[in-house]
Design a protein that fits this description.
The protein has 442 residues and is of the alpha+beta class. It has three domains: 12-200, Immunoglobulin-like (Sandwich); 205-293, Zincin-like, CATH 3.30.2010; 309-434, Neutral Protease, domain 2 (Orthogonal Bundle). It has helices spanning 229-235, 239-250, 288-299, 316-332, 338-350, 369-386, 388-401, 409-419, 425-434; strands spanning 22-34, 39-50, 57-60, 65-71, 74-75, 79-82, 85-88, 99-108, 113-115, 118-125, 128-132, 151-161, 165-168, 171-178, 181-193, 199-202, 204-208, 220-225, 258-262, 271-273, 276-279, 307-309, 405-407. A hairpin with a 2-residue loop joins strand 4 and strand 5 (74-75). Helix 2 (239-250) packs across helix 3 and helix 7 packs across helix 8 (409-419). It starts with 21 loop residues before the first strand and ends in an 8-residue tail after the last helix.
């Protein structure tokens, strides 16, 4: 039996992933992807800072094998793969504040990581690749310190088969072709949690979604197979309006642009990544169910990507706000008012088991629909108590003050009570977040 890895735990929700011993300030990933054989050959350069004195480094890496590792340019002779970790023993101990660089060469046939939340991470499509990293799937395709508390800049280079496009986070800085291979290089200069890093590969063309909108500053694109271009244009036609609505409500969009990837495959749910969202062909519809998901994923660029929880127990700060964004879009698009959406959600929750603490739901229930809906009702309760002008002012203040940073429920309560004098935010939110019985409809 393999002995367990004892490493400082970053989060009780993902006990086996993430370490408090060091942080990665920047990832530089060079990936060679062979689609036919699902073969990945990678080089990862991690520019790190030690946070604690340590004689051992533990990286998260699942299903792939390291072949060569260097620390500050010198070969590390002693490393091992144990369970879902790559364990390194430096020649000398690292001290707090010490900066160091790891270079890891690795390869294998990447597969999704199986756990409490099903399969997450690297996944083969019928014709391409999809990465769904939340909450701990990043280690399925690169060695990392996989926890949302640690945000890093990224450069991601993907070399893959000709006539395929690789879509990654951030700005495309170069594209080159050699023989039957093509290389795509992206720079994500805003700090990003590892679970939000992504690679999408397919026979995608790039469509502008708001080229005719000269009044809007955020370029929006769709990466889509050629035969689905018309479906994507129809399905995403309201997305520029959603962007305007959310900027009015939440403040400026926190990144340079936004890309929606539309796969040929049908997907059970859309997926979120920083500056990118991924949809299946089944989501390109005019129905409310499809459009609410498009709105939901866009809103995550504020709540989840720019503002990212320090601990997974506070996930309602992502999903509750994103669900409330759906309701805001519902009212703006004249589908149904926020009040009616809130009443419908409350009625559904009232008939469901009331045995979940939304502010700390536990790892197995962190993606339970009650976290989304009751979290949204908690947001609505704050709005009712504050009034619209103060409430939306608070949201814009919250996103501006924490832009590209880490957040917590405690920090939100402090911000709310500071920005709106006299608002008893903790009192309002306690029954919604930390008591099991459903409070009355706000």
């Amino acid at each position: 039996m393999t002995a367990p890895i004892v490493t400082p735990v970053a989060d009780p929700y993902t006990l086996d992933h993430g370490s408090t011993g060091y942080r990665v300030d920047r990832y530089e990933l060079d990936l060679d992807v062979r689609l036919g054989s699902n073969k990945l050959i990678g080089k990862a350069v991690l520019r790190c800072t030690a946070l604690e004195a340590t004689s051992r480094l533990v990286l998260d890496l699942v299903g792939l094998r390291a072949s060569k590792i260097q620390l500050d340019g010198k070969k590390i002779p002693k490393f091992s793969h144990r369970a879902e970790h790559l364990v390194l023993t430096p020649a000398s101990s690292l001290q707090p504040g010490q900066q160091f660089t790891l270079e890891v060469r690795y390869d294998g046939n990447p597969q999704p990581r199986r756990g409490l939340w099903g399969e997450v991470g690297w996944e083969e499509l019928n014709d391409g690749v999809l990465v769904a990293g939340q909450p701990n799937g990043a280690a399925s395709w690169f060695p990392c310190n996989d926890h949302p508390r640690y945000k890093s800049t990224f450069r991601i280079s993907v070399t893959t088969d000709d006539n395929y496009r690789a879509v990654c986070n951030g700005r495309l800085v170069s594209r080159s072709r050699k023989s039957s291979r093509e290389t795509w290089v992206y720079e994500q200069s805003e700090p990003m949690a590892t679970y939000l890093a992504t690679v999408q590969i397919g026979r995608y063309g790039m469509l502008p979604l708001n080229a005719a909108d000269t009044h809007h500053r955020v370029p929006q694109f769709a990466a889509v197979p050629a035969d689905m271009a018309d479906d994507a244009r129809r399905g995403l036609r309201r997305q520029p309006d959603m962007m305007r609505t959310f900027e009015d409500c939440f403040g400026p969009y926190p990144f340079a642009d936004y890309t929606s990837v539309v796969t040929e495959d049908e997907l059970e749910i859309p997926l979120e990544a920083q500056t990118v969202s991924i949809f299946g062909r089944n989501h390109m519809r005019d129905s409310w169910e499809a459009q609410r998901l498009i709105a939901h994923e866009l809103s995550h660029q504020w709540f989840g990507n720019s503002l990212t929880v320090s601990n997974w127990k506070d996930i309602w700060l992502h999903e509750g706000f994103a669900c409330y964004a759906e309701w805001l879009w519902s009212e703006e698009s004249r589908t149904m008012t926020v009040a009616d959406r809130a009443a419908a959600a409350w009625k559904k929750l009232a008939s469901a088991p009331q045995d979940l603490l939304v502010g700390d739901p536990g790892p197995s229930l962190m993606f339970d629909d009650r976290v989304y809906k009751r979290g949204a009702l908690a947001v609505h309760a704050v709005r009712i108590a504050a009034g619209d002008e103060a409430f939306f002012g608070l949201l814009r203040h919250w996103t501006a003050e924490n832009r590209h940073g880490s957040i917590s429920t405690e920090a939100f309560l402090e911000a709310a009570e500071f920005f709106i004098p006299g608002l008893r935010a903790a009192e309002i939110l306690r029954p919604w977040l930390y008591e099991a019985p459903l409070p009355p409809l706000p």
